[in-house]
Amino acid sequence: MNVVLDCIPCYIKQMINTLAQTEISEEKARQIIYQTLPIFPQLDPQGTPAENSTIILRKVNELLGIEDPFYTAKKESNELALKLLPQLKERIRQSSDPLFTALQIAVAGNIIDMGILKDFDVEGSIREAMAKNFARDDYESFQQRLKEAREIIILGDNSGEIAFDRLLAEQLSESGIEVTYVVKDRPILNDATMEDAAYVGMLKQTRVISNGSGFLGTILEDCSAEFKQAYKKADIVISKGQANYESLETLGKVDRRLYFLLRAKCEIVAKNLGVQFGEMVFCCS
Q1: Helix, strand, or coil here: 183?
Q2: Are 213 and 224 in contact (CB under 8 A)?
Q3: Which domain does 13 fall in, by range?
Q4: pTM, whole model, 2 decimals?
Q5: Of 111, 212, 234, nearest to 164 (Cα)?
Q6: Whose CB has fewer CB within 10 Å in the chain, the N or C terminal residue?
């Protein structure tokens, strides 16, 4: 998915949300914004929003002198999600289709995105996910592929929601499938890293690897050999979140192993998916 003009305000919003995680003065924040804006004309107009956002955010972090401005916020979102896990596990246990319910809960967690949505209501998002159908729903084809699958990769997205992804990994593992969960190699926005995976207990649940990259989304050419090998071997790839969709949408048109699980949190992504803003999808291509 290539960038469009409407991506530019989103870049700025992500910059402001990053600066808001710190205690710097408004004057210092303004200086950092002005120092970062000259990068915009250098961004690749044929690139993906995820790639261009990463370039901008790396510059902001460099000027801040802070490797992970979202460190505290990520910890808080993980703690919030962990508090909700017992009741969510019970929902899954009582469901007539536990796997489908786990998918709904995993996409409900996708509301935890401090790069785009500064304020979010996780419990409200869960209630909404339970009450609504996926705007695009390829669950039936997923079930068919699942019958022959031996290995599945879940491409993680944000902190907080990684705890909900743990429930999805549990359901898949109970089906006798080998699950590999993928996190970022280093901090970018509030994306989940190995530290987040350990914090929410994912390491105890399933195999977790880094993709070797610090980009938003999944930029395959920037990923490690270990990740590329795991990706190639997987029978099914579940791509969580908007940035992963932005970076893998073109590949998904030819790689039918790819299933995108996300909430459309911007009008451009929603239009590209053929759904309304804010709707949830579980779709193949």
Answers
A1: strand
A2: yes
A3: 7-64
A4: 0.93
A5: 111
A6: C
pLDDT tens digit sequence for 14-25: 999 999 999 999
**Could you tell me if 41 and 106 lie in one domain?**
no
Q: How many domains does the chain have?
A: 2
Tokens 């955010």 found at: 57
Q: Looking at the structure, do residues 111 and 206 belong to the same domain, yes or no?
A: yes
| Dist CA 206 CA 24 (whole Å) | 39
* Alpha-carbon torsion angle 239, 9, 187, 222, nearest 10: 60
- CA-CA distances (angstroms) from residue 120 to 48, 69, 211, 215, 284? 25, 19, 27, 23, 27
Query: What one-character DSSP code corresponds to residue 64?
Result: H
Tokens standing for residue 137 = 């729903």
Single residue among 47, 64, 81 that ends a domain in this structure = 64
**Are both 39 and 169 inside the same structural domain?**
no
pLDDT over threshold 50, residue 131:
yes
Confidence of residue 80 (pLDDT cuts 50, 70, 90): confident
37 lies in the same domain as 111: no
